[in-house]
Design brief:
Largest sheet: 9 strands, antiparallel
Shape: elongated
Mean pLDDT: 85
Radius of gyration: 42 Å
Low-confidence stretches: 1-14, 333-338
Number of domains: 3
Structural class: alpha+beta
């Protein structure tokens, strides 16, 4: 671009532009040598650049900077004109202009096919006619002489010109960024590969065939439904699966997170509120509440008990010396507590129970007073029924090979502290946690002043 001639060139890029593509190592992208550059006029240079590219019939365009008064146009042909999302094109001249915002710089670089890439940049702006692919060294010498005569003092970047700064195209790969990227000017059907047109034709043919096949299948389904209405067919497996899913939705599993929630509720109960002494605690997860029994000691009365407990706890007077206190188990989201409906797919097998959970129970056994895991027994699930044409209902027999989940009763007596280390499968339902306070007990590994009884059920798969 000559600063003394701000008029925009009205020439259109040739139908077959003389350019070269240089792959960028390690990426599917390419540098473009030989982009046609024009001068822009107007306030909105980005909009003017796009309009100029479309008027010129170019497939790609770029600016050597957001405020650059020049636009580079490329009329791509062949593979680089296809609408490929993975490959991006970058202007080598725009990339060369980025590190040279001051002065006049000329690059002359020999290419693999003996052609010469010649570019001129003035104050960071690629000049009109300053991004060409020349066919011989003689043309390159003539272009260099013309640039010297036109711009006077300039910096030459070349490996072929004596006294010039060293240059290689690899220097531009790190400058292949959004500032030098070639954007598409407009979509054209010629950008679409013939293979994609063939694929589109096959897709349309398939859609037409699929529509016809769907109509025929729907017609057959309607015919079968009419036949089944005359002679009902019972899918026993589907009905039992529905009954099993309905039962599973009614089972609230706790696992280790649910046990931790119960232990937190137990920890809320004070041992000696208002000179009343704790006797026992009973937590019922199904009712989401806990209760504690307190005995009155010397100088204690109802007022001291009320003052020693949270205001929202309910106190039930049993007799003069006994009181029963009730408080709710803190409700938390199922995602954080683990309390959620049972999922049949997560039921562990007997082998998984033996391999994963029993070793941890065996390691904790010395700190437990006793630990009982009952035999597996099938759960009781409401039998599904079908309605007969006469209005009566008939139970559906369990299909052959259909298995129901099993439950194993869990009962353990242990110091309260040992329950904090008790590992439970996620399919465990805790039914009760009782804690007894006996201040005269001599603590040891399997005994404590706070002895707890944990009851629950572990659901497993049938063998």
């Amino acid at each position: 671009m000559d600063k003394r001639s701000p008029r925009r060139s009205s020439s259109r890029p040739p139908s077959r532009q003389n350019y070269r593509l240089v792959p960028i190592a390690g990426t599917p992208n390419q540098l473009v040598l030989g982009v046609t550059w024009q001068t822009l006029l107007g306030e909105d240079l980005a909009r003017e650049a796009l309009r100029t590219a479309r008027e010129a019939g170019a497939t790609h365009y770029t600016q050597s900077g957001a405020r650059s008064p020049a636009v580079g146009l490329l009329t791509a042909s062949g593979r680089e004109n296809r609408a490929q999302a993975r490959t991006r094109l970058f202007s080598a001249a725009a990339a060369f202009a980025q590190p040279h915002p001051h002065g006049t710089h000329v690059v002359s670089c020999a290419l693999a096919d003996a052609a010469i890439w010649f570019a001129v940049v003035v104050d960071g702006v690629v000049q009109a006619g300053g991004d060409r692919v020349l066919t011989s060294p003689a043309e390159a010498q003539a272009a260099l002489a013309e640039a010297t005569a036109r711009y006077g003092e300039l910096q030459i970047h070349s490996n072929e010109v004596p006294g010039a700064r060293p240059f290689s195209l690899q220097q531009l790969t790190s400058l292949a960024n959004e500032q030098s990227a070639l954007k598409r000017a407009a979509f054209k059907f010629s950008m679409v590969s013939p293979a994609w047109w063939a694929a589109l034709g096959l897709l349309l043919a398939y859609l037409a065939w699929d529509a016809g096949a769907s109509w025929w299948q729907e017609r057959q389904v309607r015919a079968r439904e009419r036949a089944q209405a005359m002679h009902p067919v019972v899918d026993a497996t589907a009905l039992w699966n529905q009954a099993l899913s309905a039962w599973a939705r009614t089972v609230r599993v706790d696992g280790e997170a649910g046990l931790a929630q119960l232990l937190a509720a137990v920890a809320q109960a004070p041992v000696a509120p208002g000179r009343w002494r704790l006797v026992e605690i009973d937590c019922q997860p199904a009712a989401a509440s806990c209760s504690a029994v307190y005995r009155r000691t010397r100088l204690a009365d109802n007022h001291t008990l009320q003052a020693g407990l949270p205001a929202d706890w309910r106190i039930e007077r049993v007799d003069l010396d006994t009181a029963k206190v009730h408080w709710p188990i803190a409700a938390k989201p199922a995602a954080s507590t683990g309390a959620a409906a049972l999922t049949i797919a997560t039921l562990p097998t007997a082998q998984a129970l033996d391999a994963t959970w029993m070793p941890s129970w065996q390691a904790l056994r010395p700190a437990l007073a006793d630990f009982t895991l009952g035999p597996a027994a099938e759960v009781s699930i409401p039998v599904p029924n079908i309605k007969l044409p006469n209005g009566l209902e008939q139970p559906v027999a369990l299909p052959a090979g259909f298995t129901l989940p099993q439950g194993r009763a869990l009962v353990t007596n242990a110091p309260l502290r040992s329950l904090y280390a008790l590992a439970l499968p996620p399919t465990t339902v805790v039914t009760q946690l009782q804690v007894r306070y006996t201040p005269d007990t001599l603590p040891n590994l399997a005994a404590s002043r706070f002895m707890a009884t944990l009851k629950g059920t572990i659901y497993v798969q049938s063998p």
